[in-house]
Amino acid sequence: MGGYYCLLYFLLASMLLHVQDADGQSLNQTCNRADLEVLLAFSNDLDRKGTSLVGWSPNDMFCCSWTGVSSHLGRVIALDISNRNLHGVISSSIASLNSLVALNLSRNSLCGQVPVEFNRLARLRVLDLSANFLFGRFPVSEDGFPSIQVVNISFNKFIGPHPVFPGAANLTILDISSNAFFGRINTTALCSAPVKVLRFSSNKLTGVLSSYLSWCRKLTELFLDSNGLTGNLPREMYTMLELRRLSLQRNQLLGSLHNELSNLSQLVQIDLSYNMFTGSIPDMFGDLRRLESLNLASNGFEGALPASLSRCPMLRVVILRNNSLSGKIAVDFILLRRLNTLDAGINKLSGSVPPGIGWCTELRTLNLARNKFVGELPQSFKNLRSLSYLSLSGNGFTNLLSALQVLQHLPNLTNLVLTNNFPGGETIPVYGISGFKSVQVLVLANCLLLGIIPPWLQSLERLSVLDISWNKLNGNIPPWLGKLDNLFYIDLSNNSLSGELPESISSMRSLISSDGWSRQPSTGELPLFVKKNLTGKGLQYNQVSSFPPSLILSNNFLVGPVLPGFGLLVKLHVLDLSWNNFSGPIPRELSDMSSLEVLNLAHNDLNGSIPSSLTKLSFLSKFDVSYNNLAGDIPTGGQFSTFSDEDFVGNSRLCSLWNSSCYQALQLEDDHHDMDTAKQITYVMLEVGIAFGLLMVWSALYFARPWRASYFRLVDMLFDAPCIWTAAKVTNLRIKRGNEVHP
Q1: How far apart are CA 413 and CA 81, in angstroms?
Q2: Do residues 366 and 384 make contact, with C-beta atoms less than 8 angstroms apart?
Q3: Which is nearest to 103 in space by CA: 133, 75, 123, 132?
Q4: Which of 45, 143, 516, 658 allows an S-S link to 486, with CB 3.0 to 4.6 Å?
Q5: Which CATH class is domain 361-473?
Q6: Concatenated DSSP letters of 521-565
Q7: C-alpha 665: how far from its chain's center?
Q8: pLDDT tens figures, 86-121
Q9: What does the alpha-carbon distance between residue 514 and residue 57 come to, in Å, rounded to a whole number?
Q10: How far apart are CA 471 and CA 500, in angstroms?
Q11: Where does the record place it (predicted)?
């Protein structure tokens, strides 16, 4: 792409320099009167005052000195007013500039249709209308643009069949990418000229690739990506010996690749990604000695990785992601010293990771995720000092301690994803780990790791994303976690963490202000896989800044209140505290979290009412407080009108239209409460009365001596009478029995 634009602007610059050399006094000459009127008509057709934008003045007869105007002998031969923020339509009067050789109106906001009269520009060799809002069909007649060499109308809204220039015998570059052209590619008309560059990317072109493409013998760049092309690659394409860049990605092409691909020995770039190719990748790369970039991602390729890739010394990018490649890697990476990107993720590759990768010292991106690699990380990885992105998730690597001790030597490592590895329940290292000073993303999820949140994480000052979910970590959440200034995405869910939340979590700088994380660099095309469960499904983000600021602490054993300080986290998008043991009320301060989209407090022990102020959260799309002990009315208005009944179930005293019985329950509960209260009052009064009576009796006996003497005589009489009566009865019984024995 860079070579194409260099060629375009080299041609334009050469023309302008030729003009200046031919007539050094042209800037001081009076313009042709007709050309002057054309330029003024052009500026008058703009929505904004064109003269003020480009510096043209109707009172200045020396239009040859105007901004963007080049002339020869008083005639305008080149017009370059690109990137001037021009609005409006293109005046058809430009077609009257019959000496015009180059016209560049790119990178403006011009709209409307291209005037049909442009066909009359018989001397025009360079036309650049790219990056505007032009629409309709591009006008080309049978004999139009006879001298044209370079056409760039990319990034507009043109429709219809793509333009061809049958009368242009010298057409070299045609760029119509990023429009809405449809239909088949007219290769017969295109290849009648010595065309070198065809860029048809991102249109709606359909049909099969024609074998007539091979007629473009001079073609060096062919970009047909992001269309609807179907069918196999014609064998004739393997005869286009001058081809250097081939981009066919994001179509519906199928079939297999042929060994004759090796005939294209000038190839620098091959991109066939996101199609439906099948079969094995031909092991013929030894003849492609100039190859720098190979992208075959998201197809159905199977078999082994071609060992002949080792014989491409210029190779910098290899992307084979999302295929069915299998077996051990037999590539000799020691010979690929220029390798910058290796992405073989989502395949069936097995065995151990080749230690030779460690000798690719320019490697910046390495993705081996979701394969069947086993064993430990090679010690040679210590040499990858340029490595920035590393994903090894979804394999069978072992010995986490050894892996971290190797990777801590990589000073430029920013993204480390080790999800779903280390089977057998290893313990996350607490000591002996340093380095990782540049790490921004650390994902150690779904590894069933034991232990506590390691204290060495607090030295990762640039850490922005931390996911250690789906493990078996225990202990408390350390206070220092909330003091990492760049940390804005935390997922500690599905562990066994306990204790109360540290207050520092509610004062995280990056969640109060987004200045830190918004400037994080992109990871490009490579996805960051964040596993969320054992099914293998997860979230995918292409860059760090696309992660929603989140605090996910669900499925633990955390206790205590929901921190009112959460209200300070105005940049937080997701707050998930579900499935814990939090208690107390829902703080009203949560209504200050103006960016909140998800608030999940389900399955806790919260009580009180739902604060009505939460209706102020205008971005709230998910709200769940089910299975708590909440009471009172559910707030109405705002986003609360969009929530379902399931978001509130499990709170018997929470009232709304869907739970009208809660009012009766509350009334019965109040009645029972009143009855219980009356009984309690009665019992209390009875006890007080008895106590008061006993106190009065005791006081009378204590202070009134005669009453006391009488009281004790009465007591003696009460106790003596039964004793005398009993003794008399016993004596009479004995006398009676004695008389019976001795008559």
Answers
A1: 44
A2: yes
A3: 123
A4: 516
A5: alpha beta
A6: PB-TT--EEEE-STTS-EEEESBGGGSPPEEE--SSEEEEEPPGG
A7: 47
A8: 889 999 999 999 999 999 999 999 999 999 999 889
A9: 47
A10: 19
A11: Cell membrane; Membrane
Q: How far apart are CA 300 and CA 334, in angstroms?
A: 28
Least confident residue range of 315-324, 392-401, 635-644: 635-644
SS3 assignment, position 199: strand
Contact predicate 151/177, CB 8 Å: no
3-state secondary structure (DSSP) of residue 470 = coil
**Whether the predicted pLDDT of 531 surpasses 50:** no
Closest by CA position to 196, among listed 149, 249, 141, 126: 149
- Give which of 589, 587, 597, 606 is closest to 648, Cα–Cα: 606
Q: Per the structure block, which two tokens stand in for 713?
A: 């005589």
Q: Cβ distance 329 to 309 under 8 Å?
A: no
| pLDDT range class, residue 16, cuts 50, 70, 90 | very low
**Which residues are CB-neighbours of 177 under 8 A, at least 6 positions away?**
154, 155, 199, 200, 201, 202, 203, 223
CA 169, chain centre distance (Å): 48
Under DSSP, the state recorded for 592 is G
Tokens 């019985």 locate to 661
Task: For residue 685, give every residue at least 6 positions away whose Cβ sits within 8 Å of its Cβ, in sequence order, or none.
Answer: none
Strand stretches in 602-727, DSSP E: 605-608, 622-624, 629-633, 653-655
Determine the topology of domain 486-513+548-666 in CATH. 3.80.10
Higher pLDDT, 32 or 479: 479
The partner residues of 466 in beta bridges, in order of sequence, read: 442, 490
Residues 681 and 688: their CA atoms lie apart, in Å, by 10
What DSSP designation does 501 have?
P
- Whole-angstrom CA distances from 486 to 110, 483, 519, 573 are 42, 9, 10, 16
Distance CA 282, CA 296 (A): 12
Name the strand (E) or helix (H) holding 512.
helix 509-512
Helices within 590-660 (DSSP H only): none
CA distance 648 to 291: 60
Return the structure tokens found at 215: 């007629």
Residue 33 exposed, middle or buried by CB count within 10 Å (0-12, 13-18, 19+): exposed
Number of CB atoms found within 10 A of residue 682's CB: 10
Is CATH 3.30.70.120 what the domain over 28-111 is classified as, yes or no? no
Evaluate whether 355 touches 332 at the Cβ level (below 8 Å): no
Alpha helical stretches, state H, 234-385: none
- What values do phi and psi take at 187, rounded to 5? -70, -30
Range(s) within the chain of domains with CATH label 3.80.10.10: 28-111, 486-513+548-666
d(CA 627, CA 540): 31
pLDDT tens, residue by residue, 161-182:
999 998 889 999 999 999 999 9
Q: Say if residue 549 is exposed, middle or buried (CB neighbours under 10 Å; 0-12, 13-18, 19+).
A: buried
Highest mean pLDDT out of 47-61, 132-146, 221-235: 221-235
Give just the sign of the alpha carbon dihedral 110, 116, 117, 122.
positive
Query: Residue type at 321?
Result: R
Measure CA 501 to chain center: 27
Residue 724's φ and ψ, nearest 5 degrees, are -65, -40
Write phi, then psi, for 182 (nearest 5 degrees): -135, 175
Paired residues of 246 in beta bridges:
222, 270
Q: Which of 430-460 are b and which e, b meaning 16 or more Cβ less than 10 Å from the residue's Cβ?
A: eeebebbebbbbbbbbbbebeeebbebbeeb
Is residue 568 within 8 Å of residue 506, measured between CB atoms? yes
Distance of CA 713 to the CA centre of its chain: 98
Alpha carbons 555 and 531: distance in angstroms, whole number: 16
